[in-house]
Every structure is written in structure tokens, then in C-alpha cells.
Design brief:
The structure holds 2 protein chains of 2 kinds. Helix content of chain A is 50%, strand content 9%. Chain A is an alpha/beta fold. Chain A has one domain. The relative contact order of chain A is 0.12. Chain B is of the alpha/beta class. The N terminus of chain B is likely disordered. The termini of chain B are far apart. In chain B, the strands form 2 sheets. Chain B has a 4-stranded parallel β-sheet, with helices on both faces. Chain B has 2 domains: 143 residues, 3-Layer(aba) Sandwich (Rossmann fold), CATH 3.40.50; 158 residues, Rossmann fold. The chains are: A alpha/beta, B alpha/beta. At the A-B interface, helix 7, helix 8, helix 16 and helix 17 of A face helix 5, helix 6, strand 4, helix 7 and helix 15 of B. The complex binds iron/sulfur cluster (2 copies).
């Protein structure tokens, strides 16, 4: 067995903002909190990010265990390999989502021991009372993972929320179909509430839910406005930090704490902008992180970019909000909280459709890149292809090709490794590719001078 | 009706199998519109009803993937990459459009790549839900009605209920023929080899349904007439996996000394063992079949009863097949990067083993060179079965 393997020494990433530096301890406390909640007998649910149920579980005081987060933490601490190997020994292919593999390996081990595996990062992942799967176009592991976990926890019930959004098509407008999408999502969320009521013996407090939905709306707007501040030259905050500041957005939505966090971040960024304080003192290249989840074990690569004079004022990854007041419907008029959440979901995913339709050959994902490139004065694109996750990492090459066709040629780099599996990563190689990319940026810049 | 396949069963199969798409190419020249599709989850009934010919896009294990990589990441399942590579290389130049279902991430996430790279006059994504509950079924019906409307727009005419009902009848007949063919595998030794069956099913994916019914009928007659020509072999094998649209793997097992007599594959039992019920609104029956009756890892079946009952609900059809076809061993043949099947491996394996049937799990990359490397493991498995 691999118990004795010690995690490799890991370097900590330098953050630019004070807000980002507070995230690590926050996550640690949250994970510790779930282990404690288990001891206190509070209902615990395995949960996925971006699944529309944040406010619902918060309103019912159910403690979420964000399984993707725990796998990410194991990855960042460079202590995921033993869980991946454990999953492999269970006959799960190493080509599958490594968040899921890490989680399944952990669960199999914890259930076998009847306690946390030895030296589990940050105290371990608490055993759940229920598992809330989801997906539908977000990813397959969102409904396969928890189903597979039931092999180790056959007594733990799963609820799977159907959560589609209308596809982008040429021959019809998404508005022709949006009503039945919303109707379906509302039904699915109703089913979720019933499921939670049944398994916790609690009743949903609908007024409280409405308040939290409203709080989440305000948080969305605040995040959007805060991130827009990063347009400033020099930019006060880069993607490296954003990979931290996404935590309240995706793991704490619908809580006052999340709102307050972004209020403070907003103040901090404004202060930095007023003082012309950039992420780095001498900003030479402005890049967009144009797709892909990060390699959690190699976040110091962002510092490496910084050392070369490159910053990332914007990213598409984890920017899971739009300003709600920009939607083509007035969400405040939709008082039923489930319907409200459903419309917010559909409007979020279709947000770039109209714009894409206006540019022949374009596509919503490409259009979003174009908009960010212009708004944030971007010189180049960096993407990351994590081999184990098809959801966010298929279509990157094609987007770049399409961007070139409908917009312009812009220097780009696709890094390759994984979110969790460090064996896919080669630091020397990665950095050599970054160096070459910086040379290209420099060449383009000097041509333009 | 064109009489292409008349009078010949296995010979027609060989022709269509060897030159995959030749019949579609011919029909295209005669003015027929051909719609390509991926995966068993495209309701071909609706395409047939619209007057188009549904054509299943397949990959080729013999053809190294070279062109696809310029547009599509290598982390996509190798089967889909191979299909796309074949399309980019002009093998399916006769297509008028493409229909892609929400099957799995590899298929769903590549829809735009197919659509923007092939520049076909028609494209459509069928947003099939994962769940099978009532809200999911209602939603799926709405999704299929959107597809119906979209196809009508492309066809420039309405698709009537009557046409749909007729198409349902045809595709049900086609499935019944395949089931009849499978009956011939129950004998020991089987009357038809697994390699031959695979060839028949592949050929059938490339011709209009009426012709397929005819061809299958001819094959069945021919096989019955030729009688028991196959030799006895040491074991009867069932293969379980995703889309296996090449005979290479089945052939490898049969070359190693066993017969493949049953499967849970596409094309194969998974897609031919359940019919569409004829309902007043034909879309209702179609939705019901694809969402609830076709059992595949891409669909999330809600848990009813306890965990054992849940496994029975998900995999019970496999054990019934093992029994019905007198299977000695199961080969679980899964592609790399396949999330829907990959996550099920431990459960399927232990479920089947718990019923007393040994299972060999193999992961592959859908190419001749990788398939070849599996030979020794298959031989060892057959030896193990022999020693039982
Ligand atoms: S989105 Fe990707 S990383 Fe996240 S659970 Fe799905 S497959 Fe895994
Ligand atoms: S083999 Fe798996 S990943 Fe590939 S198309 Fe089929 S279900 Fe999807």
C-alpha cells in the first residue's frame, strides 16, 4: 500500500491581494468544519459546484462537502497520488476525472478503515448522509461519481438534479425553448427539496430561501463589478489570485460571508487602483486565462508568468457569474425562488448567444473571449488542457482556431497536464513552453512598436 | 423501393461492410438526403419519418488518427476521435447534415467542433436529459419536438404523426429481425459467429431501414440453410462495452478459441432489444424508449429499493442475457477516456461475478495496435474459463 508515501515538498504561491491570501485558512476551516459537523450529527451532503442548489442547502442548514474541492486540496498539497492509486486498484481507469478518482479512492479507503485514511489532508473528507449529483451538460462525472461511490456507501442516497441549458443552434433561437428548460429545472429542484426534507426530517423555510436567493443575486452583481475592476492598467489582481477568490463564489454562494468577502476584495482592488499598484510592478504583457481548470499542484506557474512581466487580468475559468441586471429579463419580478434560480441558470449559460449571432461564424465561447480580449487589453491567450476532464477541456483548440478565423490571430499557448494528477506534469517542460510563449509575445510587441 | 440488397444476405453485408457508406453515396446521387449521426441515442425514427436516411458515423481502428488532432483534443474518447478523423478525411462527404445527442461528455463537448469544422447544411444537438423520472421524460419529449420542428424546417415540410408511426413500425421491425438473428447464436456451437453478426450490424447502420430489414431477413434464411457449419469452441463469451463498430476485437476473441455469442454493445443488444411503443402522440413512445428502455451508463437511473435492487435494475439485463445465451465468461471492453462506462466498471464487474460468471476487464484505445496487445490477456482468460 502507499500509506508511507510522504507528500512532496510544495511551494506556496505568492498572492497579490490580501483577500486571496485569506482563502487558504478559510478552506481549511470549512473542511475541518464538515468533520466536526459529522461528529455533531448535522446533516451532511456531498455536493458539486455550479449545480443551482447552493441556496437550497444553505436554507435548510445542510452542511455541504464539496468533493471537487477536497480533491483539489489533495492535489494542491501534492498528496493525491495515493488516493488515485487506490481508485485504480478498484478498477477505475486513470483516464477518468481525477477529482472523482481522488474522491472515490478516498471514500473506498475511509469506508474500509471505518475512519479517515492516515494523515488525510486537512482532517479528511467527512462521510455524507446524502449525495447530490447533477450535471446534464456540465459533466458526466457529476452523475456517475456519486453513483460509483455507492459501492462503498450503499446506504447513502443520491439525488441527481437534471440541469440543462439550451444549446446554441443556427436554426432556432434559444428563446423558443427556454420556457420548457426552466419548467424542467424547477421540477427537478422541487424534487430536490422533497428529497432533502425526507432525509433530514426538516421543512424548507421558503421565506428564508427567497432571502438567500436575493443575497446570491446581489453577490453575483458584486463579483461581476469587482472582477471588472481588474481591467485597470496595471491590473491589481491576476488569475493566480482568482483561483483563490473563486472559493466564496463556488463554495459559499448564498451566504453573507461570501458577500462580505467580495465587498472587501472590491475595496482592496479600488484602493490598489487608486495607488496604481499592480499585481507586479512592471506589467509588460496582459494575458487571458482562456480556458481550463488549473493544475492545483502547480499554481506557482502563475508566479513564473509574473516574473516574466506577464499578468492575467481576466479568465473565463470560474467566472461563473454575470451581472444580473444585464439579463434580458427582470429577475426581481420572479418571486418564486426555484423559478428565479432556474431563470438565472438559463440566462447565465445563454448570455453570449445574441452577441455571437451578430458575428458570422462566431460562437458564444469565442465571443466571450473576444469581448474580454478587447475589454482587458489582452496580448495573448493561455489555456490549460487537463487530461482527465472533458467538460472544460474539449473545444479549446477549436475555439482558438475559430477565434483566428472570425477575429484575429493572437498569440496563444495551451499548457497540458491535469487538475490533480501530478504525474502528468513536467515543470521544466512547462516553463520552457512559457519562456517560448513570452518570446513570441515580445516579438509581436516589438513588431507593433 | 430500391432493390439493392435483394436476394443476398451475407454477400450484401460484406459489400456494405467493406465499403462503408457506399449505399448512402449511391442514394445521395439519386437525390436522397443523408443525415449522419453519432451514438445509439439519436431517434432515427424521426429522421426516417422526415424522408431522410439516417447514417451512423463510424470510426476505423485500422486508420491512425492524424487529422482530427488539429481540431479535437486527444482527451476525447478515441472512438469519437476516430469518427471525426474519418469525417475530416472525406469518408462521409455525402452527408447533408449531422445530428448529435447528449450522450456523454466526449460527444456533447465536441458538437461544436463537428458543426463548425464540417460546414454541413444541417446540424442539430439533441439535448437528452440524464434522469428517467417524469420531469425528465416530459422535458425529453419537448426536446424531441424541437428536433421534429427543426427537421421540418430543413425538409421544408411538416413531419406528420402518420409518417412517424410508420417509421416507428419500420425500425421496430428492423430490431425484431436483429433479435431473430441473435436467436441463432443460442445453439452450441452457434449457427453464426460473433464476427459475422458484428459485420451484419455494422453494414445495417449504413443503409436505409427498409433495406436493412430485407438484408437481415436474407441473412437469417441463409444462415439457417447453411446449418451448423461452425466448430465447437472452448467457451461462449459475452462482450460488454460502449460503441464497438469494428469487428477486430470480436474477431480477436474468436481467433483465440471462443465464440462471442452475446453482448451489451452498440451496435448490438443494447440498441436492438427494446422497441418503441406506438402511442397516440408518436413522440411519447419514442421518448420513453430512448430514455427509459435503452440501458446505458450515460443515463442516470434513479435508485429504487436497496443497493442490490438498484444494481439489478441497472445490470439485470446483462445477467438475463448470460443465462439466455449460456455465456461462460464476460469481457468488459472499455475505451480510455470514457466516463459513462469507466465509472461503472467496478459495479458491473462485481455484479456479474456475484452471479458466478468470470469477468475480464480490458481498457483499450480503439486502434488495431492496441487491440493486438490484448491477445495474451484474452488467451489467459479463456484458459481460466477452460480450467473451470
Ligand atoms: S467538471 Fe471536470 S473536473 Fe469537474 S467533476 Fe466534471 S469532469 Fe471532473
Ligand atoms: S465510448 Fe464512452 S466516451 Fe466514447 S462515445 Fe461512447 S459513451 Fe462516449
Amino acid at each position: 500500500m502507499t500509506e508511507e508515501k510522504k507528500p512532496e515538498e510544495r511551494k506556496k504561491r505568492r498572492t497579490a491581494t490580501e483577500a486571496a491570501s485569506r482563502i487558504g485558512p478559510m478552506v481549511k476551516a470549512t473542511i475541518g468544519g464538515t468533520v466536526q459537523a459529522r461528529e455533531e450529527g448535522k446533516p451532511i451532503a456531498y455536493s458539486f459546484i455550479c449545480c443551482c442548489y447552493d441556496e437550497i442547502i444553505r436554507a435548510m442548514d445542510i452542511v455541504p462537502v464539496w468533493t471537487e474541492n477536497y480533491a483539489g486540496v489533495c492535489g494542491a498539497k501534492r498528496d493525491a497520488q495515493r488516493f488515485l492509486e487506490r481508485a485504480e486498484a478498484e478498477n477505475f481507469s486513470r483516464s477518468l476525472c481525477t477529482y472523482a478518482l481522488c474522491g472515490l479512492g478516498f471514500d473506498a479507503w475511509r469506508e474500509e478503515l471505518g475512519e479517515m485514511p492516515p494523515e488525510s489532508p486537512w482532517g479528511g473528507q467527512a462521510r455524507p448522509d446524502m449525495m447530490l449529483g447533477s450535471g446534464q451538460m456540465l459533466c458526466d462525472p457529476r452523475n456517475k461519481w456519486y453513483q460509483a461511490s455507492q459501492r462503498y456507501m450503499p446506504d447513502v442516497p443520491v439525488y441527481d438534479v437534471g440541469l440543462p441549458w439550451p444549446p446554441y443552434e443556427d436554426d432556432y433561437d434559444y428563446r423558443e425553448v427556454q420556457d420548457y428548460y426552466v419548467k424542467y429545472i424547477v421540477e427537478e429542484l422541487k424534487g430536490l427539496v422533497q428529497f432533502l426534507e425526507k432525509h433530514t426530517g426538516r421543512k424548507m423555510d421558503w421565506d428564508r430561501l427567497s432571502e438567500l436567493v436575493d443575497l446570491a443575486d446581489r453577490t453575483w452583481n458584486l463579483i461581476w463589478e469587482t472582477y471588472e475592476l481588474r481591467k485597470a492598467v496595471p491590473t491589481p489582481m491576476g488569475t493566480g489570485d482568482a483561483m483563490n477568490t473563486m472559493v466564496p463564489m463556488v463554495f459559499m454562494m448564498g451566504t453573507q460571508e461570501a458577500y462580505d468577502f467580495y465587498k472587501e476584495l472590491n475595496d482592496e482592488l479600488k484602493h490598489k487602483i487608486a495607488n496604481k499598484e499592480g499585481e507586479i510592478p512592471d506589467e509588460k504583457y496582459r494575458l487571458i486565462w482562456g480556458g481550463g481548470l488549473p493544475a492545483w499542484f502547480a499554481l506557482t506557474d502563475f508566479n513564473y508568468f509574473n516574473n516574466k512581466g506577464a499578468v492575467f487580468p481576466v479568465e473565463t475559468t470560474y467566472r461563473m457569474v454575470e451581472a444580473i441586471y444585464h439579463f434580458d429579463i427582470d429577475l426581481s419580478k420572479i418571486t418564486d425562488p426555484l423559478e428565479h434560480v432556474a431563470w438565472r441558470w438559463v440566462k447565465f449559460w445563454t448570455y453570449w448567444y445574441d452577441k455571437a449571432k451578430k458575428r458570422p461564424g462566431s460562437h458564444p465561447d469565442v465571443e466571450r473571449l473576444i469581448q474580454y480580449i478587447e475589454d482587458y487589453k489582452i496580448d495573448g491567450i493561455v489555456m490549460h488542457e487537463a487530461f482527465s476532464c472533458r467538460s472544460w477541456h474539449v473545444g479549446l483548440i477549436w475555439q482558438l482556431n475559430q477565434l483566428k478565423k472570425v477575429y484575429r490571430d493572437i498569440p496563444s499557448l495551451i499548457l497540458e497536464s491535469d487538475i490533480v494528477d501530478i504525474s502528468s506534469y513536467n515543470e521544466a517542460d512547462t516553463r520552457a513552453r512559457i519562456d517560448a510563449f513570452i518570446d513570441t509575445l515580445e516579438a509581436v510587441k516589438s513588431r507593433g512598436r | 423501393m430500391p432493390e439493392e440488397a435483394t436476394g443476398e444476405g451475407l454477400a450484401a453485408v460484406d459489400r456494405y461492410h467493406q465499403d462503408y457508406g457506399s449505399r448512402a453515396r449511391e442514394l445521395k446521387r439519386q437525390g436522397k438526403k443523408i443525415l449522419g449521426y453519432l451514438c445509439a441515442f439519436v431517434p432515427v425514427e424521426i429522421i426516417t419519418a422526415a424522408g431522410f436516411m439516417p447514417f451512423r458515423i463510424k470510426g476505423d481502428v485500422n486508420e491512425p488518427i492524424t487529422k482530427a488532432d488539429t481540431e479535437m483534443e486527444t482527451i476525447v474518447c478515441p472512438l469519437v476521435r476516430s469518427c471525426f478523423d474519418m469525417a475530416l478525411k472525406g469518408n462521409y462527404e455525402f452527408l447533408d447534415g449531422i445530428v448529435i445527442p447528449h450522450a456523454c461528455d466526449s460527444i456533447c463537448r465536441t458538437y461544436d467542433i463537428w458543426k463548425y469544422s464540417l460546414h454541413l447544411p444541417y446540424s442539430h444537438f439533441i439535448n437528452m436529459p440524464h434522469g428517467t423520472g417524469k420531469p425528465s421524460l416530459d422535458f425529453y419529449q419537448a426536446v424531441l419536438n424541437t428536433f421534429r420542428t427543426s427537421l421540418s424546417r430543413f425538409a421544408g415540410r411538416e413531419i406528420s404523426d402518420q409518417e412517424l408511426t410508420q417509421a416507428i413500425g419500420l425500425h421496430n421491425q428492423n430490431r425484431a429481425k436483429v433479435r431473430e438473428l441473435y436467436e441463432l447464436r443460442k445453439a452450441s456451437p452457434p449457427l453464426i459467429s460473433g464476427t459475422e453478426v458484428a459485420r451484419v450490424l455494422i453494414a445495417a447502420m449504413s443503409i436505409p431501414v427498409e433495406e436493412s430489414i430485407k438484408m437481415l431477413g436474407d441473412v437469417i434464411e441463409e444462415v439457417k440453410q447453411r446449418g451448423g457449419v461452425l466448430a465447437q469452441k472452448s467457451a461462449r463469451i459475452m462482450v460488454v462495452g460502449a460503441q464497438v463498430d469494428s469487428v477486430a476485437f470480436i474477431e480477436l476473441i474468436e481467433d483465440s478459441g471462443a465464440w462471442v455469442v452475446a453482448d451489451d454493445l452498440c451496435p448490438g443488444a443494447r440498441e436492438f432489444f427494446s422497441d418503441v411503443t406506438v402511442t397516440a402522440d408518436p413522440i411519447e413512445g419514442i421518448a420513453e424508449r430512448y430514455l427509459r428502455k435503452v440501458k446505458c451508463g450515460r443515463t442516470y437511473r434513479e435508485m429504487k429499493g436497496n443497493y442490490e435492487e438498484y444494481l439489478e435494475d441497472r445490470f439485470g439485463h446483462m445477467s438475463r442475457m448470460i443465462e439466455g445465451f449460456n455465456v461462460d465468461g464476460v469481457v468488459l471492453y472499455i475505451y480510455k477516456y470514457c466516463d459513462p462506462f469507466g465509472f461503472e466498471v467496478p459495479q458491473i464487474k462485481s455484479y456479474i461475478e456475484s452471479k458466478g460468471t468470470p469477468v475480464l476487464y480490458l481498457e483499450d484505445e480503439y486502434s488495431m495496435s492496441t487491440i493486438g496487445r490484448l491477445r495474451t490477456r484474452i488467451q489467459a482468460f479463456l484458459e481460466l474459463l477452460g480450467s473451470k
